[in-house]
From TrEMBL, chain A:
InterPro entries: RMI1_N, RMI1_N_C_sf, RMI1_OB. It comes from the Eukaryota. One of its GO terms (biological process) is resolution of meiotic recombination intermediates. Pfam families: RMI1_N_C, RMI1_N_N. GO terms for cellular component: nuclear body; RecQ family helicase-topoisomerase III complex. SMART domains: DUF1767. Belongs to the RMI1 family. Residues 92-225 form the RecQ mediated genome instability protein 1 OB-fold domain. It comes from Ascodesmis nigricans. This is RecQ-mediated genome instability protein 1. Gene3D superfamilies: RecQ-mediated genome instability protein Rmi1, C-terminal domain. Coiled coil: none annotated. Residues 21-63 form the RMI1 N-terminal domain.
TrEMBL record, chain B:
Keywords: DNA-binding, Isomerase, Topoisomerase. One of its GO terms (molecular function) is DNA topoisomerase type I (single strand cut, ATP-independent) activity. The keyword Metal-binding does not apply. Residues 4-153 form the Toprim domain. It comes from Ascodesmis nigricans. Coiled coil: none annotated. This is DNA topoisomerase. It catalyses: ATP-independent breakage of single-stranded DNA, followed by passage and rejoining. InterPro entries: Topo_IA, Topo_IA_2, Topo_IA_AS, Topo_IA_cen, Topo_IA_cen_sub1, Topo_IA_cen_sub2, Topo_IA_cen_sub3, Topo_IA_core_domain.
């Protein structure tokens, strides 16, 4: 007899609790388990099962996979009240939809993107890279990369809950795992965060980056990135 | 065979100086039959005791004037219409003596009756190559003549005598590297020049022009165009910042935001309001730390060119020509060097002693000798051929021909003395505060001892306003806090020091040739210069480069033709320079380098030919639409 899945409740409990923080929708979990059972390799044994489920959840769109109960979502006042709302968020799971390093101008971000792209191509050309030397300030090559992110970078993230509500979040303190290119659709658990003027303030002890990404969303974000930056630059050219 | 030795230098002035030192002033001058330029070349006869096995000898010292031998294609290929340009990659070449016949004849005449030939050309790659030219000329009439080389870095008497007593062998490898470069520049330069000139000559405005190509010129031009594009495409963006000010003890202290600035107004407002909410700021750190401003490193050619441009507002070409003159006259050491560390055996104090004569920096030099002397810092480079550029003797300003010569000599002297003094010492105080969720900092500098700054007037370090007393842990309500804003500004066009730095970082040209490449792209009309106006003191008055329409057109054209290694990018030339180095180190043979490089360029040439329409259209567009 093939192994049967542990009871649904157990799995939901395990996944929702620390360190996973993924309050999965029961119906979605069922369909996941069915899919796994009927796959050629069958259901993984219990220890590996949680890991597999977690992996799948991190790669799935939040609106279909995770619970939209109030305790896991953003307060509704965020979207119904005009900016100026102050309050608190406790225990929400959110999906990253966009990220911007606001310590850089758009031109700098475009440069960083181009250098990262050229850097990859140059690898094929036997590792030759133009080193740009700037006499006035040390313009270091910033990149779309975890390694290349400046130490004093400051990001704002567009976060979305399972009910489709969105909020901009500001990295008040640098948070491990946050960088431009971290993966659209990646999940973030907000244990505790203040909201000021409709902006969520992220501090290290209230936030945990869970990881993952939704492949389709991430690809389209990456493909369109250059155009987005160019458009923003053009908007500045028109004057504000 | 009489005990006669023929000595040949690279220039007449060096020959005169060396003859003077070796003969103890007892040389007799015998000019040979003058013919145009050879009016300047004299033969000096004297006696000198060389080390064994030569011993006491009769010496004739003469010189060439740079290259005696020219390389060109054979007659059949010299006319532009004689062949397809790409045939030049393989066409036969020949060496001819050209218009230096009388100089070559002089060498032959003297070599015929000499036992040995001592080469006294400059000790760099080109000098080594010229040495082989002289050797080959001598051997046509005296195949068994012994050939030796004198190694020297300055024209001082002791140095020259030592060089004469310790002759070495000619470095055949360095000569081969130069031969490779000459051949490659000839073939590649000619092929591309002929092709692109013929292609573009039909465009209005370019009818009589020769549109030359050089494998160093184009990447140099590429840097200028690249920066120009950045400036043209620049769009200012607004940023915001938080400033906190506090008045204490009648002093206004400005605290700067740890984040410096952010490009999002809303977020700055949010953070600012959190600060105000906190009402009080708390002092998290108060620190007084000793700090220093490092004295400069020993002087290299690239640094001399960069700083000559920046501090003295003299172009790199002129700086090098002045430096050459100062060297030839025996005032400074050989000015083409990459070495930025002084050999521990050098008597630097003696060199300082010579500078005590100066009415301006003499007292500083004297102070060094009285105990303030400190060993120079060591850089990371040693080309093993020449020491860092330094003054060999003191020369009074009146003995120099013009103001620029005085200023260059002064710079070299001051820099040397600065190397031998101490770092400047100061005390840096910092106060860090936490205001709401945000951190701010204020700092003050107290310069305690200027040290090297007293002689090296080109660096600035001033005490700032002192900070009032703050105590760690104390809290206060800041006098004022507000949001400020600003706009990003475009970079300027490339200045000469920046261009040199880029060429240096990307391996374009050597310290000996960089100034020449820059001069060439100006001469060919690919870039033009103008003096930067306004702005801060250091930047204004400097020359900056902008590409001409033709220059921009060529770079864009070749970029679009899309070579894997576009000729306007530095990769190809960098590779060539690296191969030259390998020849010098014995890791590659000249023939292989020439062959492999020709193949690379041949491929690119064919590609360019296929896309010639594109290059023509782009150039046309630039020249008629005025660059739009």
């Amino acid at each position: 007899m093939p192994p049967t899945a542990p009871p649904l409740d157990h799995l939901i409990q395990a996944l929702s609790s620390p360190p996973h923080h993924l309050p999965v929708k029961p119906t979605y979990l069922s369909s996941l388990l069915n899919a796994l059972s009927s796959s050629p390799r069958g259901l993984p044994p219990p220890p590996a099962l949680i890991a597999t489920l977690k992996f799948r959840l991190l790669a799935a769109d939040i609106s279909v996979s995770l619970s939209s109960l109030p305790q896991h979502c953003l307060p509704p006042q965020l979207t119904t009240t005009p900016t100026g709302w102050c309050g608190e968020v406790r225990g929400a799971v959110l999906q990253v939809m966009d990220m911007v390093d606001i310590t850089m101008s758009n031109i700098e971000a475009l440069d960083a993107l181009d250098m990262a792209t050229r850097g990859e191509r140059a690898q094929g050309r036997r590792g030759e890279i133009i080193r740009v030397v700037n006499d006035e300030d040390g313009g270091d090559g910033l990149g779309e990369d975890r390694e290349r992110t400046k130490k004093n970078a400051c990001h704002k993230l567009l976060l979305e809950d399972a009910a489709g509500r969105r909020v901009w979040a500001l990295e008040v303190e640098r948070i491990e795992g946050v960088y431009v290119g971290m993966g659209i659709g990646g999940k973030v658990w907000v244990g505790k965060a203040e909201i000021a003027r409709g902006v969520m303030l992220l501090k290290r002890d209230g936030v945990k980056v869970l990881g993952g990404k939704v492949e389709a969303l991430d690809k389209s974000w990456k493909d369109g990135r250059r155009e987005v930056l160019m458009r923003r630059i053009e908007e500045h050219r028109g004057g504000r | 065979m009489p005990n006669k030795i023929l000595c040949v230098a690279e220039k007449p002035s060096i020959a005169r100086a060396v003859a003077g030192h070796l003969s103890g002033g007892q040389q007799s001058v015998v000019s040979f039959a003058p013919l145009d330029i050879s009016i300047f070349v004299k033969n000096f006869d004297f006696h000198y005791n060389f080390p064994p096995p030569w011993g006491s000898c009769q010496v004739t010292m003469t010189s060439v004037i740079g290259h005696t031998v020219e390389w060109d294609f054979t007659k059949d290929y010299q006319k532009w219409n004689s062949c397809e340009p790409h045939h030049l990659f393989d066409a036969p070449t020949e060496k001819t003596v050209g218009d230096r016949k009388d100089i070559a004849e002089n060498i032959k005449t003297e070599a015929r009756c000499s036992r040995a030939l001592f080469i006294w050309t400059d000790c760099d790659r080109e000098g080594e190559y010229i040495g082989t030219e002289v050797r080959d000329i001598a051997r046509t009439v005296n195949p068994n003549i012994e050939v030796k080389r004198a190694r020297f870095s300055n024209i001082e008497r002791a140095h020259i005598l030592r060089a004469a007593q310790h002759p070495v062998e000619l470095d055949e490898r360095q000569a081969q590297a130069v031969a490779a470069r000459i051949e490659l520049d000839l073939r590649i330069g000619a092929a591309f020049t002929r092709w692109q000139t013929k292609l573009l000559q039909s465009i209005e405005g370019l009818e009589q022009k020769v549109i030359s190509y050089g494998s160093c010129q184009f990447p140099t031009l590429g840097f200028v165009v690249d920066r120009y594009r950045r400036v043209k495409n620049f769009v200012p963006e607004q940023f915001w910042s938080i400033k906190v000010m506090h008045k204490r003890d009648d002093i206004n202290v400005t605290f700067n935001w740890d984040r410096n600035r952010l490009f999002d107004r809303m977020m700055v407002i949010v953070l600012f309001e959190k600060c105000l909410q906190a009402k009080k700021a708390r002092v998290t750190k108060v620190q007084k730390k000793p700090t220093k401003k490092w004295k400069p490193l020993p002087l290299t050619t690239v640094e001399l060119q960069k700083l000559g441009s920046r501090f003295l507002h003299i172009t790199s070409q002129e700086v090098m020509s002045i430096a050459e003159k100062l060297y030839t006259n025996g005032f400074i050491s050989y000015p083409r060097t990459e070495t930025d560390q002084f050999d521990p055996g050098m008597d630097l104090r003696a060199l300082c002693e010579k500078q005590t004569q100066s009415p301006t920096w003499g007292p500083f030099a004297q102070n060094l000798l009285n105990g303030a002397f400190e060993s120079p810092r060591n850089g990371r480079n040693n080309d093993k051929a020449h020491p860092p550029i330094h003054p060999v003797t003191y020369v009074t300003p009146n003995a120099l021909a013009n103001q620029n010569e005085r200023r260059v000599y002064e710079f070299i002297a001051r820099r040397f003395l600065a190397c031998c003094s101490s770092d400047a010492v100061g005390e840096q105080s910092t106060v860090d505060i936490q205001y709401g969720p945000e951190g701010f900092h204020a700092s003050g500098l107290r310069v305690i001892a200027r040290n090297y700054l007293d002689v090296y007037v080109y660096d600035k370090w001033e005490s700032s306003q002192p900070l009032p007393q703050f105590i760690e842990g104390e809290e206060f309500v800041p006098t004022e806090a507000n949001i400020t804003d600003g706009k990003t500004t475009p970079p300027g066009f490339l200045t000469e020091p920046e261009l040199i730095a880029l060429m240096d970082a990307n391996g374009i040209g050597t310290d000996a040739t960089m100034a020449d490449h820059i001069a060439k792209i100006k001469d060919r009309g690919y870039v033009f210069t103008r003096v930067r106006a306004g702005g801060d003191q250091q930047a204004s008055g400097m020359e900056e480069f902008a590409p001409s329409n033709l220059g921009s057109a060529l770079v864009e054209g070749y970029d679009q033709i899309g070579f894997e290694n576009s000729v306007s990018k530095p990769f190809l030339r960098k590779e060539m320079e690296e191969k030259m180095k390998k020849i010098c180190e014995g890791q590659m043979e000249r023939h292989d380098v020439v062959h492999s490089t020709i193949e690379q360029y041949r491929e690119m040439f064919l590609r360019a030919k296929q896309q010639s329409r594109l290059l023509k259209d782009i150039t046309s567009r630039y020249l008629t639409d005025d660059g739009v």
